[in-house]
Amino acid sequence: MKKQILYSATKPTGNLTLGNYLGAIKNWLSLQNEYNCYFCIANLHSHTIELSADFVKTKTLEQLAMFLACGLDPKKSIIYVQSMVPEHAELTWMLNCTTMMGEANRMTQYKDKVAKGITSVSTALFTYPVLMAADILLYNTNIVPVGEDQVQHVELCRDIATRFNHRFGPTFVIPKAVVPTVGARIKGLLDPTSKMGKSDDDPNNIIFLHNTNEEITKKIKRAVTDSLNNIAFDEQNQPGVSNLLTIISACEGVPIENVVAELTGKGYGALKQRATQSVINTIAPIREKYNYYMSHQDELIKIATDGARKAQKVAHETLLRAKQNMGLL
After folding, report:
1. DSSP tag of 142
2. Of the listed 113, 289, 310, 323, which one is catalytic?
3. Which of 27, 31, 23 is nearest to 7 (CA)?
């Protein structure tokens, strides 16, 4: 059977974390074998907020390097940078012509800003869900893996594509949002009741994939536990201990109950030591490959260029079909 097409795009505005890797990226590695995958670094989306050109360029290259370091394979998947495929921007305008103001107005990010009384909002923040629709539709996408908060954007994409097809004739494949089975839910080291987010204000709450062994050791040593001195998986009463157990389990690929059995009676020092070694064993090879790519940016650019060429071949065919159907010369 012909493999279905899977499309995933991420905005390069922060550093990827251990939570990103164990919760999502690690799952992408198996998806490469099940689907024809497109992994896009959505740098056009970065400018919906005010960021410097140098920041966006640097973060784009860093994210590409980290994706490759984590195991995304350009021989199995198409990995590319959004701005290197101009069809994204052109199709966005065409889709704007079939998107209703009310639809865009209901999208969460814009609606939340307005609700807070924020008036200094760019039109890009209002229309970026249409760019997201163009991203997806250019590649005849069947499956879009998204978190719960992004499902509404894929629903908008479906509505736009359906309306376009009805008005101008069959043009786009109608994609489907899929909320994937989430990998390990990694929480903050200092606040184990909230997820480990890449935009957290306190870097000691987060383990980044580029952190050194020394940084990892210091961060886990400071991680919150409790005064019970009991190693058990109990997220309600022992969230800090449970988070460290989850990290060990996810990094080592062993059931949490096995980890608990091995550490019972050994105290929190042993728990943190085990967590530290598990994280270092997971991150060290990723960091090594990441540092290689960042010091060989000519190779990184070549991979991005090759990926963009492959992506553009498909995107151009879709755009041409849409233009012909719209009557655009």
Report:
1. S
2. 113
3. 31
Any catalytic annotation for residue 195?
A: yes
In a domain, 191, yes or no: no
Cβ-contact 182, 166 below 8 angstroms:
no
**Known catalytic residue: 3?**
no
214 and 248, same domain (yes or no): yes
pLDDT of residue 101: 83
Q: Same domain, yes or no, for 125 and 242?
A: no
CATH number at residue 285: 1.10.240.10
- Position 170 scores a pLDDT of 97
State the catalytic residue, choosing from 198, 289, 310, 323: 198
The confidence band for 280, taking pLDDT boundaries of 50, 70 and 90, is very high
Question: Degrees (nearest 5) of the Cα angle 16, 20, 26?
Answer: 115
Return the pLDDT at 114. 59
With respect to residue 164, please indicate whether it lies within any of the assigned structural domains: yes
User: Could you please report the per-residue DSSP string of 83-139?
Assistant: GG-THHHHHHHHHHTT--HHHHHTSHHHHHHHHTT-----HHHHHHHHHHHHHHHTT
143 pLDDT higher than 70: yes
89 and 173 in one domain?
Answer: yes
Active site residue 113: yes
